[in-house]
Amino acid sequence: MSDTALATPGRDFIRDVVDRDRTAGRHGGRVITRFPPEPNGYLHIGHAKSICLNFGLALEYGGTCHLRLDDTNPETESEEYVEAIREGVRWLGFDWGSNFFHTSDYFERLYGFAVELIRRGKAYVCSLSEDKIRAYRGTVTEPGRNSPYRDRTVEENLDLFARMRAGEFADGASVLRGKIDMAAPNMKLRDPLLYRIKRATHYHRGDAWCIYPMYDFAHPLSDAIEGITHSLCTLEFENNRDVYDWLMASLSIPDPPQQIEFARLNLTYTVMSKRKLLELVERRLVAGWDDPRLPTLAGLRRRGFTPDALRDFCERIGVAKANSVVDVTLLEHCQREALNPEVPRVLCVLRPLKVVIENYPAGEVEELEAPLYPHDVPREGARKMPFSRVLYIERDDFAEVPPKGFHRLSPGREVRLRYAYLVRCQSVVKDPASGEVVEVRCTYDPATRGGAAPDGRKVPGTLHWVSADRSLPVEVRIYDRLFRVERPDLEEGGFETCLNPRSLETLAGSRIEPAAVDPALGERLQFERQGYFFRDPVDSRPGRPVFNRIVPLRDSWAQEVQKQAPAAQKAPEPKAKVPKEPEAKVPAPLSADELATLERMRPALLPIVQTVLAAHPAEVERYRNGKAGLLGFLVAQVMKRVAEAGGTANPKLVNAMLREALEPS
Ligand code: ATP
Ligand code: MG
Q1: Are residues 596 and 563 in the same domain?
Q2: Are 564 and 596 in a shared domain?
Q3: Whole-number pLDDT of residue 588
Q4: 147/190 same-domain check
Q5: Ligand 1: which of 44, 50, 267 to mutate, judged by most atoms within 8 Å of the beta carbon?
Q6: What is the pLDDT of residue 662?
Q7: How many whole angstroms from 248 Cα to the centroid of ligand 2?
Q8: At what angle do helices 328-339 and 307-317 cross, to 10 degrees?
Q9: Which residue(s) pair with 552 in the sheet?
C-alpha cells in the first residue's frame, strides 16, 4: 500500500546518484535542481513531494534550486496560478532566492535552438494533419512510416519554420518535428513534435508568439539554459528521457543535465491530478482551490495543516522508483505528531445538550483552574474555566438507555466533568412533541471540586463541558474524506460518482470556553476528545470564530503500525508514542425511540444485513481484525440494497444492526 517500505528517510537512489556524480567530479561537483510546475492549476501535495526533493537536495549539497514556470500552453495558464504556486512553495518553507524563471522568457533562445536543429538536419517542418501524424506513428507492435515531408531540405525547412513563426499558416497546418527514427521501439522517438502553431494570448507573453514549443523540446532545453545538473521528474516521463538525451547530443550541449525519474505520490481517498482537481473546482463540487477537503497546498493550509508536518510526511514517504499509493492516515499521523507537543487543550461542545445542576445556586459563577497542556507535554500554562448552574455537554455523551459499554452520562449515573465536579443525572426533560431529551437535570457533589472524590469512589467517564452563559458561540466544520473509496480515480463511472456526501459537516451551534479565543493561545487548538482545530482565516468574524477540524484524535495509522508490529520494518515507526485518547470512538447511542424502530425493522433488515455480510467475507474479516472503518463500507452496501428494493432505512440503525451482527458469536 505505501512506498515507505523502500525508503530510508534522507537516503534514496537519487541522493546516491548525486553522491556518485560528485565523487566522479561530474558537473564540477555542482547540484542545481529545479521545480518546474506548469501554471495551470494550484499545487497539490504531490508537488510538495517534488518541492521537498528538489529544494531539499539543493540545500543538502550547498546548491541551488530554481522555481521555473513551465508555461508553454497559452490556453490553460494564468497569473492567478503563478501567484498560487509562489505562495505554495514559500509556505512550505522554501526559498528560490533570485532563481525565479519562466520558460516563456526563453522563447527566443528556444527558437534559436530549433533553427540550429534544422541546420544540423535534425528537424523538419511536417505538414501532415494531426490525424495523419497519429496514423503514421504506428503502434507499439508496428513501426511507423516516414512523413512525406521528412526529406525537405534544410533551406526549405528554415523558410517554412520562419513563416510558421511569422503567422503565415493556420493553427495546426504544420508542426516542427525532430528527425529521429519512425521505427524506434520507444514511440517517443518517432519524430516527436517540437513546435506547434497556436494563436492564443499567453498570460506572460501576450501575442508575441503564435508558435509554441512542446514539453519534450522546451523542458530539456530550459534545463540546459539554466545549467541544471539533475533534472528530477516523475516516472511517466521515463520514455521522454531518450528525447531529452537526443536533444542534448544533437545540439552538442556541454555538460548536459541528466533526467532522473522518481515515483509520483498518490494518496488514498483523493485525486491528485490538476485536471481532476480543476474539474472539482469548476463544477463546484468543492468550494474552490482552497477547499479544506482538497489535497491542494492551499486547501491543506486552509484546513490547518502545517508546513512542518507536510515536510515530515514527505521525508517519511521517501523517494522510490516504484509507483504506489500512500495511506492518507500517514499524513494525518504526521500532523497529529507535529501538533501534539505544541497546541493548547481547550473544551468545546460541538453538539450541545443543556445540563442543569439543580443544587448549584442560580446566578453564581466560579472560576476553575485548568492546565492548557497534559502532563506529558513539557509546556506550562493554565486558564480559568467558568462553572455555573446551567452547562452544556455533548449530546452524544448522554444516553437515556445506555448501550453496553457506554461510560458516560445516563439516568442515575455519576460522571466527572473535566476539571470540575462529579455530577449525577437525576432526571431528564423531553420535548413533548418529539420526545427528544432537551435537558438533563443533575446534582453535583461540592466535595469533588477538581474532579476527585474524597471517598475515592470511581466514576465510569469524564466529559467535556462549558458554561451555558459564559461560553461563546462558534461554528465548527468537521471535514471527512472527499471520496468514499480508496482509489476514486479507478472508479468506473468516474471519480465524481464516489464523492462522500458527508465530507463536510457544519455545526453552527457549537459552544467553546471563553479562554479559547484568547489570541495568545494561537490559531490551532486541541478540543479535548474531539481533535485538532484551526481558526479559519477567511470566514472567522470577531466574536464568532469558525474552526476547521484538521484531524480527529483517533490515529488509525498508529493502530495500523501497532497491528503490523511483527513486520515492523515494513512501516516507518511513529516518532513518538501516540497518546491514548480518553475513550475510543463509541458510536452515538440509540435513543429509546430508535431502539423501538430498530426492533420493528429487524425482520425486514436482518436478511439484507446477512446477505451483505455473506457477500463481503474479506471486509468482514478485516473489520473483525480491527479495521473499524470498514463498517461504513458495509453500511453503504446495506443502504444500497435497501434502496434497490425501493425502501429506505436510517443509516444509524443499519450501523447498529451491522455491529450487532458482526459481534463474534
Ligand atoms: P498533474 O499531473 O497533477 O497535473 P503535473 O505533473 O502536470 O501534475 P506539473 O506542474 O507539470 O504538474 O508538475 C511540476 C513538477 O511536480 C513536475 O516535476 C512533476 O513531475 C511533479 N509532480 C507532479 N505531480 C506529482 C506527484 N503526484 N508526486 C510527485 N511529484 C509530482
Ligand atoms: Mg503532468
Answers
A1: no
A2: no
A3: 66
A4: yes
A5: 50
A6: 84
A7: 22
A8: 130
A9: 531
Measured between its terminal Cα atoms, the distance across the chain in Å is: 32
Within a domain: 365: yes
pLDDT of residue 613: 87
Phi, psi of 662 (to 5 degrees): -85, -10
In the predicted structure, residue 498 carries a pLDDT above the cut 80: yes
Q: Which ligand is nearest to the CA of 270?
A: 1
256 and 359 co-located in one domain: no
Is residue 290 situated within a structural domain?
Answer: no
**Is 258 inside any structural domain?**
yes
Distance between CA atoms of 174 and 155, rounded to whole angstroms? Answer: 16
Residue 86 shares a structural domain with residue 140? yes
The closest ligand to the CA of 238 turns out to be: 1
Residue with the bigger pLDDT between 576 and 389: it is 389
Is residue 278 scored above 90 in pLDDT? yes
Query: Can you tell me whether residue 34 is helix, strand or coil?
Result: strand
Residue at 336 is within a domain: no
pLDDT of 568 > 60? The answer is no
Structure confidence at residue 25 (pLDDT): 95
User: pLDDT digit string (tens) for 105-153?
Assistant: 999 999 999 999 999 999 999 999 999 999 999 999 999 999 999 999 9
User: For cell 457506554, what's the residue?
Assistant: 406
For the cut 70, the answer to whether the pLDDT of residue 297 exceeds it is yes
Q: Are residues 606 and 518 in the same domain?
A: no
Which residue range forms the structural domain that includes residue 494?
345-568
Q: Would you put residue 419 in left (φ > 0), alpha (ψ -120 to 50) or beta?
A: left
Q: For the chain, what is the mean pLDDT? A: 91
Q: How far is CA 107 from CA 67, 212, 219, in A?
A: 17, 8, 12
As for ligand 1, residues whose beta carbon falls within 6 Å of it are 36-38, 46-47, 49-50, 70, 233-234, 264-265, 272-275
**What is the C-alpha to C-alpha distance for residues 171 and 433, in angstroms, rounded to an integer?**
71
The residue among 233 and 638 whose pLDDT is bigger is: 233
> Are 564 and 654 within one domain?
no
422-430: strand order across its sheet = 462-463, 414-417, 422-430, 437-444, 352-357, 390-394, 465-467
- Of 277, 284, 301, the closest CA to residue 538 belongs to 301
Q: The sheet that has 546-552: what strands, in order across it?
A: 345-346, 524-527, 531-535, 546-552, 472-479, 504-512, 348-349
- Whether pLDDT at 11 is above 90: no
CATH number of the domain to which 406 belongs: 2.40.240.10
CA distance 136 to 154: 22
CA atoms within 13 A on the CB side of 41: 22
To test the pocket of ligand 1, the residue of 42, 49, 81, 234 to mutate (highest count of ligand atoms within 8 Å of its CB) is 234
pLDDT at 285 over 90: yes
Q: Which residues pair with 425 in a beta bridge?
A: 442
- Annotated catalytic sites, by residue? 38, 264, 274
Domain count for the chain: 3
- Please state the pTM of the whole predicted model: 0.83
Q: What is the CATH number of the domain that holds 600?
A: 1.10.10.410
- Grid cell 528517510 is found at 9
Q: Could you report the per-residue pLDDT of 35-53, keeping only the tens digit for each?
A: 999 999 999 999 999 999 9
pLDDT given for residue 664 in this prediction? 64
